[in-house]
Structure formats: C-alpha cells, structure tokens
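hi! just following up on the protien thing from before. the input was this:
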Amino acid sequence: MLRAASAIASFDVRRAMSAAASYDFIRVSGVGTSAAALVLDRPKKLNALDLAMVREVADALARVEDAAKAGGNCATLTVTGAGGKAFCAGGDVKAVRASGLAGPPPGGDEPDYLRFFREEYALNAALGRLGAVSSPVKQVSVWDGIVMGGGVGLSVHGRFRVATEKALLAMPECAIGLFPDVGVCHALARMPGGSGAYAALTGARLGAADLLFSGLATHYVPSERLAEAAAAVAAVDGALPPAAFDAAVDAALNGAGNGATPPGENSLADRGGAIDAAFGGEATVGAALAVLDGFAAGGDGFAASAAAAVRAGSPTSAALSLDLVRRAAGASLADVLAADFRVVSRVVGARPPTSDFYEGVRAALVDKDRTPTWRPPPTDADVAALVAPLDPGAELALP
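and the predicted 3d structure came back as:
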C-alpha cells in the first residue's frame, strides 16, 4: 500500500509540473523540437540532487518523450550543469541521514529517504531507456566539471556522455559508509578488467582519458568546442528514424571533438596490471589489499595509494561494493537498481541507526572531523543479508 500511495503521489506531482512547465532547480528549453536542453540549476550546491530536483528532472524527461512521440520525430536531450564547476556532485546525503535518524514517520508513511531513493532509482531506470539505439530520445550528458554519486546515475545510463578536459568523475561512497548506487554498478561491471571494482572501492577520481578508456564517456570534446558540439547536435534532422538519428548525433559529436586527445594521465590503462591483479577475478577485499601491498612493497606508489584509499573507507562498504559490482556483470539495469534499493533500505533504515553510513556522513559532512569509527569487517553472511530480497510490498517497483 505504501508503494502504491507513493507512486500515485509522484504521478500527481509530475502531472502538476507538466501543466505548469515551471521549475525551481532546473531549466528546460526546446521541448517539442529535435534539440531539447536541460540545465541542472543549483550551482551553489554543485547541482546536487534532492527529491524536488529528482521530480523536476523526471517531469522534464516525460515532457520531452511525450513531445517526441506526439510528433513522430526523434530528439536529443542535452543535459548540462550550471555554475561552471559541476555537472552534479551527487545526492544530498546529509538530508538522507537526518531522515534516517528521525526514524519512521507516524501513521506508517514511507520515510523521506526511502521516497527519495525510490523516485531517484525510477528516474535512473527511465534514463536507461534512453540509452537504447532504438529510443527516439537521445540523452547527451556533458561532463564539464565534477560528476559524482547521483550525478553519475543521472547521466551514465543515457546514450551519449561527453567528457571535457575539466571532467572529474568519482563514486566515493565507501568513504561515507554507503556504496555506489543509482545503478552505477551496471556500468562499473562493464569497465575493462578490474577497473570498475577499483573505482568503486577506492573512489578514484577519473579524468577524461580514464573516462574514455573505461567506456564511461562516449566522446571527448574540449570545453572550447562545446558550443560547436551543441550546434552540430541541434542541426541533426529529427525526422530521421531512431537508428539513423543515433548515428548522426554520434557523428556530430565526433566532428566537434575533431580528433582531440584528452590531457592528463590515463591511470586505468597505465596501471592496468596492478588494478587487474588486485581487483580482477573473484578476489576478496582482503586478497586485493594483499596484492596492492605487494606492489607497494616494490615501490609502486599507485598501489600504495589505492590500498590506503580502500582502508580509509568502510570495510562493510568495500565488501558490499565488490559484491554488487560482480553481481551486476550479468544483470539488467533494473535488476541492479532493485539490488541497490534493497541495500540502501537496510543501510539507511537500520534501527537503531548505527550503520557505517551514519558514522561516515557524520565524520565527513556533519562534524567534519574526518575520523570515522567503522564497524568490523562483515562476514559473507552479513553481505548476503544486505542484498537479500525485501518483503514483496517493500521492493522497488519499476515500469
């Protein structure tokens, strides 16, 4: 009943927004044309997501899709971040923590944090539909700054992801006692070798060269050519069938890139031997650390830094993240999002609220003492219990 009530409330919010077509946290233009644009517009918060913003993006996406279907044409939806610093720096985990600490609301209503994750993950799934070549709407996300957490989920499932030399992407959730959610493990599991698990457990900051190598980014376009790229994408004929439209958008982005090479180190390629040895195959977190320590003993500074990053994060988050990346290898995006919802329901919903998430956010964002006290490393049974199915009425329901 709670799930149905939440879905109805969410539908009513989107319907009201569509009628008004006015937003507080995003800017939308070009709906009904072959080139729509969406700007995430909370620059003082580095365009971080909260529930209101998730609902606004979901509404705008529905409007663009409905307009394309009504006109029988294709359209691009170019998504950028305002402020010049970030595409989107993630979700508002302080608000999630506060909601969890408050406990279940009276009357049996769904807690705010669960409503946030439920609707955020539904949006991730909807954006995943745009990732198909057959989709009439093509999402073009422009990573021209910081992309973290929920911002990765808001973009990586779409069809085109454009990195500039300013792009910096990371999933640093293990450092706050969480895990890479928003369906991101679906993408991490498809990165070369053990690089996805490495990114998940270390929170490594990936620049444009890494993003292209990993497949997280589909194109590289220097910042100074973004206007050219936008014009080229806008010029693609929306009357083309979806596959031809897809190819034409791809060609337009390639043309704007003009063969430019991303600056900076490609750490995933250059350090692939150490990464694959530690994080590839079926190694446990402990075994991965032993491999990294071995490389470090031989003078490998990269391996030493990676081991330190894993150890600085929550042991539970590390074990859980490694498990989720491996589970995602053969799973659909919907299956990955369902697993994410099961885990986040338990990690944030633990009563009393003593999970590493509460301690991690406290140390990083509330008290800012940077000295979290983590729980002991989990057993395999502990991890399995976190990813086990919920009661049927509590599971994530996706269209």
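The longest helix spans residues 51-71.
The radius of gyration is 21 Å.
cheers
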